[in-house]
Design brief:
Two copies of one chain form a homodimer. By secondary structure, chain A is α/β, with parallel strands linked by helices. Chain A folds into two domains: 4-121, Rossmann fold (3-Layer(aba) Sandwich); 132-232, Orthogonal Bundle (Arc Repressor Mutant, subunit A), CATH 1.10.10. Chain A contains eight helices and twelve strands. The first copy, chain A, has helices at 12-24, 35-42, 61-70, 88-97, 109-121, 164-175, 183-191, 199-215, and strands spanning 4-8, 28-32, 49-53, 79-83, 101-104, 132-134, 137-140, 145-149, 157-160, 181-182, 222-225, 229-232. Chain A has a five-stranded parallel β-sheet. The structure holds a DNA duplex (30 and 30 nucleotides).
Chain lengths: 242, 242
DNA sequence: ACAAATCATTACATTTTTATGACAAAAGTA
DNA sequence: TACTTTTGTCATAAAAATGTAATGATTTGT
């Protein structure tokens, strides 16, 4: 589906150039000359990404970014900063305000598009509401329930009780089964992009998930891939000893 | 078949953005800056759906919607209102005028498209007047009564006394059983869209509902799903492993 | 075998979320 | 009007979940 991008840039020529390129890349574009105008636009439409010129005439770029990060509705919208030259101060301020990426002017349109793609890729995947049935587990997002198929009596299923994070983690792992995820990827996609949490914390949640799954006789579904991360797999990667 | 959508919105940027999104989604789009203009457009072409900004400059949005509902030719056209979060009276007026759905600004274009789809498919089976019998409860919307089946003597049923809000809440939960609803969804669906009520208030009403149900021996029907919301369920989520 | 790196596990303090009772405003009734 | 019911909010208690650090186990490379 179309991605809506808000461009906040006071220089008309640059604004137009950017807008043109974004449109050509298949995006919907909203333009604002100032933070002021950007705010009023955001009052009406929620963009999927904001391209923000840091050197706005009224110098309210930082404030604008911060405002976006504060409000519940907008706090997860990725922000890419456009700066003339990265001054140390800008960088710090930008980080504090929660920018996701920087682009230094002048930049090539191709670079811009590439960065945008990269940032958008990091968004939380919109997990569908489809029931996932895998490895003897059945996860239903709409009822928020996980059941284990009883191997003896297929009609009987036991419910598995998971905490919110364990549920999301399992959902994600099952949705992207058989694929290894680094701790960083899991943090980005299960916890959310703008969280600062120790990588090791993922271990603990994996542990909790495993513990619960073990208690219902599902042992080897969540596997460790040493040096990389974790994986949900139905294939048994154990007794492959030669 | 192409669906024709009339967009009534005075802000040019937003109008254009919406129009572009709709076009991209494969719809025919008609645009109007004012209720005035919309009326004359409708005289020529009959749209399949109307997107109506409630805050038109001439403040004739309400009147416009009402007019649509009055005239035979247009009275069954679904109306989606675009509203700012603040105006509370709008809700009443909107309901009276017969809007089918609301979208509160700021909204994401994705959300907009999704809602349009939903309305067009007549997705939401408006709460019917059918009697719902579930988990030992019998709820009759027409008589506005709830009965509990007596487990001992099936012929005897006790009546449960619920307040208006509790009744609607239970009705909704039973109509969409087994599914988790966030507090926001419940506020939208049971209280009405964009009402200014604290999320936590839902807790209190759930509490009241539970209290009443407990008093007639129905304990685990209304369940908490931590981190998400509530659910009406016949399956017991208790004796679960884990 | 040894040291380094990586992962597992446990315990615990903190934070977040939910439950519950009380209260006053609002709405409805007599 | 006086009285009852309903309803939204708050304060606080209770419960659950979460992140981190510390420690132990396992693997890996040399």
């Amino acid at each position: 589906m179309a991605v809506t991008i808000l461009v906040v840039e006071d220089e008309p020529a640059i604004q137009e150039l950017i807008a043109l390129n974004l449109k050509r890349a298949g995006h919907m574009v909203l333009c604002a000359d100032s933070a002021q105008q950007a705010k009023s636009l955001i009052n009406n439409v929620l963009p999927d990404l904001v391209l923000l010129d840091w050197m706005l005439p009224d110098l309210t770029g930082i404030e604008f970014a911060r405002k976006l990060r504060q409000e519940e509705r907008t706090k997860s919208i990725p922000i890419i900063m456009l700066t003339a030259r990265i001054q140390e101060n800008d960088k710090i301020a930008g980080l504090e305000a929660g920018a996701d990426d920087y682009i230094t002017k002048p930049f090539s349109p191709r670079e811009l598009i590439a960065r945008i793609k990269a940032v958008l890729r990091r968004r939380l995947p919109e997990m569908s509401d489809e029931i996932i049935e895998l490895g003897g587990l059945r996860l239903d997002p709409t009822t928020h329930r996980v059941h284990v198929n009883n191997d003896v009596d297929p009609l009987k299923t036991a419910e598995v009780n998971l905490g919110p994070t364990e549920f999301r983690l399992l959902h994600y792992l099952m949705a992207y089964k058989e694929r290894v995820h680094t701790r960083g990827q899991l943090l980005d996609r299960v916890w959310g992009d703008h969280v600062f949490i120790e990588d090791r914390t993922v271990d603990v949640h994996i542990r909790r998930l495993r513990k619960i799954l073990e208690s219902v006789g599902k042992e080897n579904l969540v596997q460790t891939v040493r040096g990389t991360g974790y994986r949900f797999s139905v294939e048994c990667s154990e007794e492959s000893i030669g």
